[in-house]
């Protein structure tokens, strides 16, 4: 059996795009407003618990209200899809909430099933046609040792039943273990189709490339930061966001007193 993509989390595709920057959720940890938890986690030194979000603010009328799909004041639709468990607002991508997984998945639901032993959603063509490994999705990726179950990076189901992230890196030096050019092109396309919310469009970040060891400053994006030296997305963020100041408009020249 060839490696097959497992189900992706809905947040793999969320990345702050909700039909426009039309609402912000209040982080229960720090009380700050963010378009999505990924933007919060990139800027703060702690992680936001999506399940504890209780209030959102409409960006049109600024009404603070309980989390819901439509603004109670101006009736603006916050998202074509809304999960009242994960508090996920997004465009309609046939998402559904999987109760055993505990998170939202990208569907459609009828094309996937939840394997009770593996404890994750798999494509229907794998039903009765894969090797089960108990709670396999709750194990970390054996290459990068990072979480697979809630990861925004897709994974492969190997013939042995174990999972690996799609992005292969050496566990010692983090260098890409194979030719990733096609994968980088896929990320290019996804980023081009997924503009960041307005308040992050001018944000920059310092990165270090794991492939060529270059240090550079690039635009921030929750999908990934591209090395300007070699084009790799196998990069690590070095520090917080750098917010570029907008140039002041209609600046009047300074008047000097005549002596």
UniProtKB/TrEMBL annotation:
Cite the annotated pathway.
Answer: Protein modification; protein ubiquitination
Domain CTCHY-type, chain residue ranges per copy: 78-140
Q: Where is this region: Disordered?
A: 1-20
Write out the biased-composition intervals (Polar residues): 1-11
* Gene Ontology cellular-component annotations: nucleus
CHY-type domain location is 6-76
The name this protein carries in UniProt is Ring finger and CHY zinc finger domain containing 1
Organism field: Maylandia zebra
């Amino acid at each position: 059996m060839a490696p097959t993509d497992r189900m992706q989390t809905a947040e793999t595709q969320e990345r702050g795009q909700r039909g426009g920057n039309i609402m912000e959720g209040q982080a229960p940890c720090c009380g700050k407003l963010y378009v999505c938890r990924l933007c919060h986690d990139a800027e703060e030194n702690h992680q936001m618990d999506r399940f504890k979000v209780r209030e959102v603010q409409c960006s049109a009328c600024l009404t603070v209200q309980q989390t819901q799909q439509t603004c109670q004041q101006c009736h603006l639709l916050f998202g074509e899809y809304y999960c009242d468990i994960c508090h996920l607002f997004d465009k309609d991508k046939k998402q559904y909430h999987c109760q055993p997984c505990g998170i939202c998945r990208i569907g459609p639901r009828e094309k996937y099933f939840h394997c009770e032993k593996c404890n994750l959603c798999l494509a229907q063509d794998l039903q009765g046609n894969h090797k089960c490994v108990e709670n396999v999705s709750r194990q970390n990726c054996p290459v990068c040792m990072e979480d697979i179950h809630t990861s925004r990076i897709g994974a492969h189901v190997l013939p042995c039943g174990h999972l690996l992230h799609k992005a292969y890196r050496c566990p010692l030096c983090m260098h890409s273990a194979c030719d990733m050019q096609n994968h980088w092109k896929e990320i290019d396309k996804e980023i081009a189709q997924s503009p960041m919310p307005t308040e992050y469009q001018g944000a920059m970040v310092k990165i270090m490339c794991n492939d060529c060891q270059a240090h550079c400053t690039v635009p921030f994006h929750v999908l990934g930061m591209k090395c300007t030296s070699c084009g790799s997305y196998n990069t690590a963020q070095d520090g917080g966001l750098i917010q570029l100041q907008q140039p002041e408009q209609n600046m009047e020249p300074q008047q000097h007193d005549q002596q």
